[in-house]
Task: structure prediction
Amino acid sequence: MAYKSGFVNIVGNPNVGKSTLMNILVGEKLSIITSKSQTTRHRIMGIVTGDDYQIVYSDTPGVLKPVYKLQESMLKYSESALEDADVILYITDVLETKTKNKFFLDMVNRLSVPIIILINKIDLVTEQTQVEDIIKEWHELIPKAEVHPVSALHKFNTENILNRIVELLPENPPYFEKDRLTDKPERFFVSEIIREKILTLYEKEIPYSVEVQVETFKEEESIIRIQTVINVIRDSQKGIIIGKGGQALKRLGSVSRKEIEAFFGKKIYLEMFVKVSKDWRDNTNRLKNFGYDI
Result:
């Protein structure tokens, strides 16, 4: 049997479950999962290697109309995912308006590669006829696509999706060595774990005004020593991140350290500093320094 490999890129609107599905399909937690929209900011690869196949998944930010340069970069990641895909996974759910961000849907419709539409959160639908109606509507919107109902929460139908993806992969040698899990460096996952905890612990605009930088990452035999800077856009946000007597920052450090230790399987010494970087979301140089494609 010929070896198969290819790039399977995951796209769709915010908050439909793209990152949850990515993590299930990869079998590892690589992407941030929260109930808040615009959580994923980068394009994150997850690599799955079987005996006769390799799937290179790519999770992308939710599609949106940009308001500032950070969001322009996020949209660029989503659009680039349409250009280099062997298979497109377009994620939607049973709740969203089907023509939301129609400009992006039109781009998907023009693709020549296989398209799989996954209708997530079908556990929220009580009548089978409702699911059938939603599938029919998506067939009409993108006639060339396959449409499958799934529930990322309950892992319903995800194994069948994996098998179908393997069937659709082109014949190629593997792109990465067999034990490679992602294209991102270790520092990236430290910053993403901390950012996820900020999304969970802080309210309103704080999570969307924050960027986490890993300044130093020193791995020793029994411990990894990490220094990070949390960038915010206003002095008032710095105060909220730190909290009264530093208690909020201490809590953030504690929950972040525990998850980073679980991720690396090693003791972590974590230092956090908070810095005001005004308008970083609209500053091209700062965005480039933070690793965004501008």
User: Anything to note?
Assistant: The beta strands are 4-12, 44-49, 53-59, 87-93, 115-120, 146-149, 211-219, 223-232, 267-276.
